[in-house]
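User: Structure tokens for both sequences below?

Assistant:
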Amino acid sequence: STLPAVAEELLREIKKAFQETSQVPDDLLLGLKFIFGPCAVPALDLVDQRSVTRVRSPSGRTLYQVLGSSGKLYTCYSSCHFCTCPAFGFSVLQKSESLLCKHILAVYLSQAMGACQELAVSEEQLTNILLAEEEDEG
């Protein structure tokens, strides 16, 4: 599954602008709010607070953890546009009101702006992170 082409293009433009000027121009910020709605500003706040961590194992498996504004850690999978937060389950999956939640948008913005923290873990540690998420959901 992929984001709509307009959203993908916007993220590419943000990345390009950020590489050139180290900031996101107002027109792209407006586009962000237009496409992603009310989660755009909170997502930018998460990026500013450097709340996004890319977790990588030696085999190359990657997931992202985002420290939410509530202090809870959410696991995001950018490859399939999925987040473990309740807002994702409700407004994205159940009601189809949003393309994604603020956490997964923060992941994409952090990637575009090179603002991800990096964490290398063992395969076992990565498995434990994934299993812990399943227990939370169960």
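Moving on to the next sequence.
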Amino acid sequence: FHSGEREEKCIIEDVPSDTLVMGNYKVQRWDIHKQDFLESAPGLGMFVTVTSPSAEILLSKLYGPQGTFSFTSYLSGEHVICLQSNSTRFVAFAGSKLRIHLDIRVGEHFLDESVVQAKDKVNEVNFRLEHLTEQIQHISKEQNYEREREEKFRKTSEETNSNILWWAIVQTLILISIGMWQIKSLRDFFISKKLV
């Protein structure tokens, strides 16, 4: 995505509890002379701030023009990941555009291929099985989290439907009572005028 030089951009990531989140980013600065983004942005860094659903700051750190950050979620819910450049230019002069490449991985543990190649085949299979077991546990956590969210949404929907039903019944009773009152008033009016 593109950003202004001192502009803060935030991304909301819905994460289950006790889950590792890793992010890789790279910043490129716009070059006016070349009319293209430079491959790197020397001297430019990024402030990375991560806020939990309870507004607790999990991570607040300055990184370089490219880097990796990680955090573990303690609560399930929407975590806000914000990136802002550490440009020292004044706001009036900081009109340069930045291109930020961001890759966020939730709950993944990556295989270190150099470790895998260094071990014999039995250890490699064992290592890969452990990795698969971790992935299965992560998928299970993710499913449980989605199940909780679906149950909460279903309860809210049922409460809303119940309220709508009761409101419709109250409206019907009010309309019937007003109609009966109007008929009685009209009948009394006709009787008082001796038209009936």
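User: Anything stand out in the second?

Assistant: The first strand starts at residue 2 and ends at 4.
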